[in-house]
Amino acid sequence: MSKEFFEAVKMLEAEKGIPADYLYEKISAAIVVAAKHDFGGKDIVHCDIDPEKQRIKVYVTKNVVEEVEDEDTDLTLEQAQMIRKSAKVGKTIDIPLKTKSFGRIVAQTAKHVIRQGIKEAERGQMLKEFQSKNQELLSAKVSRVDPVTGNVTLEIGKNEAILPKAEQVPGEEFEVGDMTKIFVVDVKEGNKGPKIMISRTHPGLVRRLFETEVPEIFDGTIEIKSVSREAGSRTKIAVLSKEDDIDPVGSCIGPRGQRVSNIVDALGGEKIDIVKYSDDPAEFVAAALAPSDVVSVEILDEGAKSCRATVPDDQLSLAIGNKGQNVRLAAKLTNWKIDIKPESGFYEG
């Protein structure tokens, strides 16, 4: 093996972060497997790699015997003493392998193992990198849009991930070179490398955007208690302040509405209702039905978490929302079943 081989391994260690010892161990094991074929697959082949002396030694260990029983593993004393004069019956002798054909096997094996080592190491690094970003908000660049499936390939750092059509906000369009925010839902080890599940529809995206824009959420002064979302249309978020003198809703809206406006822009114009969380279910449900006013909330069954909200007659359609969206999101946000009733008791036909 030439010194170029050892230099290549050193370079891989520096550039790809693959430990040289890991590669030497893999190459050594693969060479042994390849060489064993010449000896009936018997476990007598050894490979020592010495990077300091830049030397690879491949040899077989055979038994010195009076009478050969197995040509793959045994040598007579006479044969052994031709290799080493001090050989004795009952001992073993190491025989270096230097055939040209085997030299080619060593070179091919080393190349294959290095390629595999690079792939494994890159997959491992990619998995580690994404695992460290699991449940996080990331910026990504659009590198490809599949015209058939609508799936978008995104560059995230040095890696790539697919944003499936189902995880895109309805109606949004991507072009190559666009920057977008995505949420890492999960990272799993797959057969072909790490499987990264990313989304723009997940409620976690909104949660992380608020953490980014609102310092009081980031430092823990304000807590996000729950988020309910219908991506591309409307999100409701319930917040609670741990300090009495800090208004959680006002802090999230920001001076002149700038904080929430930045989040709305990042979500492509999605409407956001920020409501104050309360341990009192009636108070929480009333707040969750924003932007509608609520006259009262009656708890019908605490165990089943069902209630009835009474709203002014002229606010009924606002409380219910387009196709029931407002009450549906309020129910998800509070985890209560909500029945809406007009103040007069009469529903318009």
Walk me through the structure.
It is built from 11 helices and 15 strands. It has 349 residues and is an alpha+beta fold. It has a 5-stranded antiparallel sheet. Strands 1, 2, 3 and 4 form a 4-stranded mixed sheet that branches. A 3-stranded mixed sheet has the order 10-11-12, sandwiched between helices. Helix 2 (20-36) packs across helix 4, helix 5 runs antiparallel to helix 8 and helix 9 packs antiparallel against helix 11. It is elongated.
Concise account of the structure shown:
The chain is of the alpha+beta class and 349 residues long.
Any descriptors?
elongated; 349 residues; alpha+beta; four-stranded mixed sheet; 11 helices; five-stranded antiparallel sheet
The count of strands amounts to 15
Structural class: alpha+beta
Report how far apart the termini are. Answer: 89 Å
Low confidence ranges:
none
Q: What is the count of helical runs?
A: 11
Question: Helices and strands in order, then pairings?
Answer:
Elements: H1 3-16, H2 20-36, E1 45-50, E2 55-65, E3 74-76, H3 77-83, E4 92-96, H4 100-131, E5 137-145, E6 152-156, E7 159-163, E8 179-190, E9 193-199, H5 203-213, H6 215-218, E10 222-230, E11 234-241, H7 248-253, H8 258-266, E12 271-276, H9 281-288, E13 296-301, E14 306-311, H10 316-320, H11 325-334, E15 337-342
Parallel strand pairs: 2-3, 11-12, 14-15
Antiparallel strand pairs: 1-2, 2-4, 5-6, 5-8, 6-7, 8-9, 10-11, 13-14
Helix pairs in contact: 2-4, 5-8, 9-11
